[in-house]
Amino acid sequence: MMVLRRRVGEAIRIGDDVRIVVQEVRDGRVVRLGIEAPPDVAVHRLEIFELIQRENRQARDGALAWLSQRADEKQTEERV
Amino acid sequence: MNDEIDSQREEGVFRFPQGVAGFPGSNRFAFIYTGGDVLCMQSLDEEEAALLLAPWDRDRLGAPPKLTCEQRACLSNADDLLWMVVLNPVADKRWVFANLRAPIAISESMGRGLQCIRIEPDLPLRYPWMEHPEKMAA
Fold first, then answer.
1. What ipTM does the predicted assembly reach?
2. Using an 8 Å Cβ cutoff, are B53 and B71 in contact?
3. φ and ψ at B71, to 5 degrees?
4. pLDDT band at B138 (very low <50, low <70, confident <90, very high)
5. What is the C-alpha to C-alpha distance for residues B66 and B136, in angstroms, rounded to an integer?
6. A61: which chain B residues are within 8 Å (Cβ-Cβ)?
7. Quick check: A52 and B102 CB within 8 A?
8. How many Cβ pairs closer than 8 A exist between chain A and B?
9. A19 CA to chain B: closest CA distance, Å?
10. Which of A20, A24, A55 is nearest to B125 (CA)?
11. What is the pLDDT of residues B13-72, one digit of tens each?
């Protein structure tokens, strides 16, 4: 992992389009970041993104089961 | 697995510029009506990426979320948004859950979609949406 030291008001850039500015450090523990990114770049808190990722993957199993059942039913109809 | 989804199709395709969490290779989705109030959203990029959705119910859930400027831009500033919840039918034997922390907005006119991930900690990830039907396909 790349590690950079930045002060309040300083920024880093990722690629051509993403800019992250350190806006505030509170009590030496909480960092407030400002992020500029194009609309097609998703920016989320990691723990929330991972939660949704896990839930979507579990939910997918239900959708795949439905699609598979539907394909079976179509095959049966075609045979009849 | 599904012989009706043509991955080369252009019509009825919704682009999700930010993708969908958990399906990193999927940006293009199409919808299949499953019967009842449930839709299946299937990726055109990855056969194994699909979700079951139900329309946002204002009576039960109130108004849909407000979008940020960035989220509106991602949906091409469309004003014809249709909101849906992602259903999880496999987490529980009795209930089909709806994920209120990450509903989906689509714009038919723009052909765009977005999974709107919300940070409010009190929103349920698994809201009991309906009891399991005998068969999802009905």
1. 0.88
2. no
3. -70, -40
4. very low
5. 31
6. 90
7. yes
8. 109
9. 15
10. A55
11. 999 999 999 999 999 999 987 777 899 999 999 989 999 999 999 999 999 999 998 899
